[in-house]
Amino acid sequence: MQPIAQRAMAPEIITKIDKSGIIAVLVIDELKHAVPVAQALLKGGVNAIELTLRTPVAMDAARLIKKEVPEMSLGFGTVLTVDQVKAVADLGADFAVSPGCNTKIIAEAYKQGLSFAPGVMTPSDIEVAIEQGCRVLKYFPAETSGGMKHLTNMVAPYKYLGLKFIPLGGCNIENAPSYLESSLITAIGGSWVAKQSLIQAEDWDTITANALEIRELITKIRK
User: Which of 5, 79, 90, 135 is deepest in the core (most CB within 10 A)?
Assistant: First the structure.
């Protein structure tokens, strides 16, 4: 059997995330907003989302997006339980992430064939993730943990392993370059692109404008 270390996240998903460079973090309160926000993001060139499991409509919203906006890479965040792992895997999610590094969650994701990135903030977190076979990790909370300076120093002993990180927590258009310019980063994640308040206000034009702005920045940095 192929070692778990080589199967924590499918290569094709890693490629999609890396190519995207940005994962829009969404909190959707009303089902009617699911498809319009996904379409607004796509219009601006953002084709990867992390739909947080923080609202009662999250799963139904994901089903709608998957059906109506199939071009969107659909990920889930705030995955905290084994049952949630099973649910998002059954739905056909492309990937999932969690705020912490829970070995039971990682194991279940592997069992379900779900590409998964656990959250890390310390060297001990990284070592647990490595032992569980993860090579793409969520760096959370990124900014309050020390940003790119902290991540660069923390990862130094493990850099030879080719680890890649998705920073979330405090990322925005102003500090995005500090992350995107590093070879450690596969994509940044952030809610600023489609803030909960913008979704609630149905301000799709501003969401598209935010998406265009970060897409242009990523293209400029990674050209």
Answer: 79
Q: Which two tokens stand for residue 15?
A: 């490629």
Give the chain's domain count: 1
Q: How confident is the model over 131-168, as pLDDT tens digits?
A: 999 999 999 999 999 999 999 999 999 999 999 999 99
Q: What does 47-93 look like in DSSP terms, one character per residue? A: -EEEEETTSTTHHHHHHHHHHH-TTSEEEEE---SHHHHHHHHHHT-
Which CATH number fits the domain that encloses residue 146? 3.20.20.70
pTM over 0.90: yes
Residue 97 belongs to domain spanning: 4-218
Asked whether the CA dihedral 5, 7, 9, 10 is positive or negative, the reply is positive
Within-domain flag for 194: yes
Tell whether 223 is covered by a domain: no
Catalytic residues: 50, 138
Q: pLDDT tens across 206-223, in order?
A: 999 999 999 999 999 998
Does residue 78 form part of some domain?
A: yes
CB within 8 A of 9, min separation 6: which ones? 95, 115, 116, 117, 134, 135, 136
